[in-house]
Fold:
Amino acid sequence: MSRRDWLIVGAGFTGAVLAERIATQLDQSVLVIDRRGHIAGNAYDYPENGLLVHRYGPHIFHTNSERVWRYLSGFTEWRPYFHKVLGMVDGRLVPVPFNIDSILALFPPRMADRLCDTLIQRFGFGQKVPILKLRTEADPDLRFLADYVYEKVFEGYTLKQWGMRPEDLSASVTARVPVFVSRDDRYFQDRYQAMPRAGYTALFERLLDHPRIRVELNAEYRDVASSVPHDRTVFTGPIDEFFDYTHGALPYRSLRFERRVEKPPCGLPVGTVNYPNEFDFTRITDQRHLGGAPDVDPLLITEYPESYSVGVNEPYYPIPSTATTPLLERYLASADSLDGRVFFAGRLGDYAYYNMDQACARALALFEKRIAPLVTGQAPSGRIAVSA
Ligand code: FAD
Ligand code: UDP
Structure:
């Protein structure tokens, strides 16, 4: 293959957005490779039974970033979708994030009223309170509620999902799903919430559809790097893998997905049901809701968390905790030493628990602040923060 200006490793959000920017804005040639047999990374979807199935678990697009929303809107039309989640708590299905309606469903009326009043007086209606913060409250009613929610919603789920207790992870992990002093039962409150109308894979096909972009699938970085001449690299795979684990292996968490088609009435009442306390799996998603197709047969995806082993399963989640910070810093320093030749980005390249919009924002920022100035001869230095 002829020389390429850029080799981009990974055809997920990070790699595809960067390829699009480099090709269209800088007119440079890009080879995008992925070791998987498809584009779109973990957002990959494919048609089955009248639905688009998310192969790597439910992917719901949500963002407060107008910039990301506008950028992606250039490559897809959207179908509005508000994701809802119920959690099985004490044998009842109640809203998650845990909110005022969850309290009203689980406690006797007078007690529920008192708990809601106390919560509203302390934090204000409409506020979000991370569970680890709620547990530091002195008021006996709030302490009771905090312990109840911690035990019934967070403890078991987190132990299954991460093999760790909530307090041993970065507080930002459980803060993603705070106690919500509200009756808004949507999982997200972002300004923009929607699904790509023709699916994620179609969105990626459009991102990558450019004469300066070539895509090779089932292609491993090590093989391509030595056989295809290229000037610069963007690596969106695991940062520790790139450096042959020289500083030691960073921890990741994996999942096993079980997919099955059911007949009504076996479907779920909402997009996802969480099982914090029962079973070995964490949640089941009914793709009918995500696909906006309530009349087709329920298509259920169950997520079983697993420990991660290199070459055996996928590193779906970096594990955010203070325990991993020193090791990550060593890899980030190694990455800095390659500055200008190899760029690292993405959920695995940055080792950061990004949502899709954050991966997209990170790619756009990397392009604007580092890659474009480098190519046009005005390169600044320093790491770049994500701002989705
Ligand atoms: P990825 O999509 O992981 O892409 C990286 C690609 O690099 C992969 O395709 C991989 O095969 C390839 N690669 C790695 N190493 C190599 C190598 N050596 N050679 C060749 N190719 C390589 N986000 C949301 O916003 N909403 C959601 O609802 C949501 N749900 C999620 C549910 C699950 C179960 C998971 C795991 C994630 C979810 N996410 C969600 C997060 C979302 O998947 C990520 O934000 C996004 O995929 C990150 O894109 P990326 O390009 O950084 O990484
Ligand atoms: N979480 C929980 N119980 C729930 C939902 C979430 O304990 O019912 C915690 C758990 O630690 C989980 C984290 O909050 O990993 C983030 O949840 P989210 O739904 O954002 O996870 P993701 O969709 O990224 O897997």
About this structure: The mean pLDDT is 96.
